[in-house]
Specification:
The protein is an alpha/beta fold and 226 residues long. The protein folds into two domains: 129 residues, D-Maltodextrin-Binding Protein, domain 2, CATH 3.40.190.10; 89 residues, D-Maltodextrin-Binding Protein, domain 2 (3-Layer(aba) Sandwich). A six-stranded mixed beta sheet has the order 2-3-1-4-11-5. A five-stranded mixed beta sheet has the order 8-7-9-6-10. The radius of gyration is 20 Å and the shape is elongated. It binds phosphoribosyl ATP and magnesium ion (MG). The site of phosphoribosyl ATP (PRT) has 22 residues, from helix 3, strand 9 and helix 6.
Length: 226
């Protein structure tokens, strides 16, 4: 007998994993071990789900797009911020409505409230990990942005004179507040998306469609119970 096809789903570890698990549970797609505590990077799921064996990859949020684009995973869950920034060649069939936040330009309270655009001689220094989205935003306004790439804790940059503004995701606004910053402009509303490798969409159509359908039901159920 032929082996069952394997359907590989890349999950973002970190903050959206916790919100992903109830959706997977509703869909009957639970990993066999606790993915929040295991050191394993590849974890089995159900052995026979819509005719497939499911396996999960537990990886950094920023790497999910790459695994799915290159076909190392058939499906994945990624924040829209990362999709907009890296524009991977993947399908985006479902908004999971988790990991909600917004991508904003933020700056020191006094400077933003004074309506001071912080542009000096046609230039502005902006710290971010979203280099392309930041450059694009300022380009549209005819402002040259010196983009300073940071990997995290962007909120520190304006406090020590490294940057005039930051572009980062904001959820509650507590981190901004604690560091004397405020939002200046919202660039995009963000949530996490189910993404699919375009080839898997064709070659594993039945299984991929089944995952989309079950997760859509899970999202609808979750929204109803809110
Ligand atoms: O953090 P690490 O470098 O390990 O990885 P990562 O940043 O790639 O992953 P992770 O888990 O931090 O974020 C994964 C995804 O979660 C992001 O791509 C977003 O789509 C989504 N998300 C939702 C958020 C937030 N909310 C969020 N609040 N990602 C980051 N934050 C950070 C933000 O950068 C800021 O420093 O939380 C801080 C602000 O939070 P508030 O609540 O104080 O506003
Ligand atoms: Mg983070």
């Amino acid at each position: 007998m032929l082996d069952k096809p394997v359907l590989t789903i890349a999950l973002s570890k970190g903050r959206i994993l916790e919100q992903t698990l109830p959706l997977l549970e509703f869909a009957g797609l639970m990993p066999v071990e606790d993915v929040q505590t295991t050191r394993k990077l590849m974890v089995d799921g159900p052995d026979d789900w819509a005719g497939s064996k499911i396996r999960f990859l537990i990886i950094r949020a920023a790497d999910v797009c790459t695994y799915v684009e290159k076909g190392a995973a058939d499906l994945g869950i990624s924040g829209r911020d990362l999709l907009l920034e890296s524009k991977p060649h993947v399908y985006e069939p479902l908004d999971l409505k988790i990991g909600k936040c917004r991508l904003c330009v933020c700056g020191p309270k006094a400077s933003v409230e004074a309506g001071d655009s912080a542009v000096k001689s046609g230039r502005i220094r902006v710290a971010t990990k979203y280099d392309h989205l930041t450059a694009q935003h300022y380009l549209k306004q005819g402002i040259h942005a010196d983009v300073i790439h940071l990997y995290g804790s962007m909120e520190l940059a304006p406090l020590v004179g490294l940057a005039d503004r930051i572009v980062d995701v904001v959820e509650t606004g507590n981190t901004l507040k604690a560091n004397g910053l405020v939002e200046e402009t919202t660039l995009f509303d963000i949530s996490s998306r189910l993404i699919a490798n375009p080839a898997s969409f064709v070659t594993k159509k039945k299984q991929v469609q089944a995952v989309i359908t079950r997760l859509r039901e899970a999202v609808e159920q979750r929204e109803k119970n809110k």
